[in-house]
């Protein structure tokens, strides 16, 4: 844990990422930087302001610092990695232990071949790319993601071993970037409920273009990333990740009662909200030429050619934007500009690396 914490006074340890260390040493206690909370400044805003912690007002919970960091294994469904796979891996590489990706056989460029050619060479010790031997196309993005991640889970059993009960598995789509602050919190603490879901900021093309809608049917993040411990999948869901995605194991009262009797209590947890998101859902966030190519492909082949099929009522978001003369102002779909001053504008790697400047300019 010494990698993540620093002692500012005898037996007073503060999380380095969330602490103003100079002030903390002077005052002999942990002084948190903005949007970090808790006695050791280890709770990020998305967790702190969630319905579970209620900004510290929920007296029925106890968040405890672990003796050792737990392992984090992330599974990504990939259908248009553009810059986002790199951003995901750069974003939280120090805090995750294994990254597995899965793609269809016709995916081009193939992540598998890119890795063979040296793609993300400095991170490859943690990356396992898998290519499915067939393609799977559906109209709804959430169904596609669930299918791909279920197939990837089957591979996990063949490629990984030595699972521990407290290992955390995160299931995500490559266009979703979970905040590294939240990932670090999950790694270092106990006491939070599972399964957990991530409330992401829905974006289109750029990290400052947040999608909004007046429609109650709008669904901007069709597949929300979710996570749980290995114990949850093994004991409650009978090792079947499909049961986890459908929530059938969580809703099985007998299973749930048996699990809580032998392990710990269960409660669904949504991390983050619209003001303090736990990450970003960035659809078609790539270079302008990449965006044009995808739109042209959409016009030619229909919505199934797009990386994501968001639904706005019965119309996909891309249909809506292509058909409207005024892309930014319509009665049921519009953009809200995220200001540069927003503390959750974009992942730190995007803000600090000029390679990704096109995503925030």
From TrEMBL:
One GO MF term attached to the UniProt entry: beta-1,4-mannosylglycoprotein 4-beta-N-acetylglucosaminyltransferase activity
Gene Ontology BP terms: N-acetylglucosamine metabolic process
Any one GO cellular component localisation term in the record: membrane
Lineage top rank: taxon: Eukaryota
PANTHER family attached to this UniProt entry: BETA-1,4-MANNOSYL-GLYCOPROTEIN 4-BETA-N-ACETYLGLUCOSAMINYLTRANSFERASE (PTHR12224:SF0), BETA-1,4-MANNOSYL-GLYCOPROTEIN BETA-1,4-N-ACETYLGLUCOSAMINYL-TRANSFERASE (PTHR12224)
The name this protein goes by in its record: Beta-1,4-mannosyl-glycoprotein 4-beta-N-acetylglucosaminyltransferase
Organism from which the protein derives: Araneus ventricosus
């Amino acid at each position: 844990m010494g990698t993540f914490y620093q002692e500012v006074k005898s037996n007073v340890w503060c999380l380095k990422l969330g602490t103003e260390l100079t002030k903390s040493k002077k005052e002999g206690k942990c002084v948190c930087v903005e949007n970090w909370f808790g006695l050791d400044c280890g709770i990020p805003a998305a967790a702190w302001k969630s319905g579970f912690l209620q900004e510290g007002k929920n007296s029925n919970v106890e968040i405890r610092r672990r003796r050792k960091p737990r392992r984090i294994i992330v599974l990504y469904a990939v259908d248009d990695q553009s810059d986002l796979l790199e951003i995901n891996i750069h974003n939280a590489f120090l805090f995750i232990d294994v990254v597995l990706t899965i793609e269809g056989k016709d995916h081009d460029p193939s992540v598998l071949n890119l890795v063979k050619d040296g793609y993300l060479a400095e991170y490859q010790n943690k990356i396992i790319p898998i290519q499915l031997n067939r393609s799977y196309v559906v109209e709804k993005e959430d169904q596609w993601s669930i299918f791909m991640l279920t197939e990837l889970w089957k591979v996990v059993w063949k490629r990984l071993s030595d699972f521990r009960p407290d290992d955390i598995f995160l299931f995500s789509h490559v266009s979703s970037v979970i905040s590294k602050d939240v990932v670090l919190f999950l790694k270092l603490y106990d006491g939070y409920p599972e399964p957990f879901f991530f409330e992401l900021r829905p974006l289109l093309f750029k990290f400052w273009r947040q999608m909004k809608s007046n429609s109650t049917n709008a669904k901007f993040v069709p597949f929300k990333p979710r996570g749980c411990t290995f114990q949850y999948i093994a004991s409650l869901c009978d090792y079947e990740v499909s049961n986890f995605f459908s929530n059938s194991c969580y809703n099985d009262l007998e299973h749930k009662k048996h699990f809580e009797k032998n392990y710990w209590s269960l409660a669904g947890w949504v991390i983050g909200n619209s003001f303090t998101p736990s990450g970003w859902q960035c659809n078609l966030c790539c270079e302008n030429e990449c965006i044009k190519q995808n739109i042209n492909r959409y016009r030619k082949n229909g919505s199934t050619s797009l990386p994501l099929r968001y639904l706005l009522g019965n119309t996909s978001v891309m249909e809506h934007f292509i058909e409207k003369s005024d892309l930014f102002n319509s009665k049921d779909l519009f953009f809200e500009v995220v200001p540069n001053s927003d503390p959750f504008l974009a992942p730190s790697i995007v803000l600090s690396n000029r390679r990704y400047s096109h995503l925030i300019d």
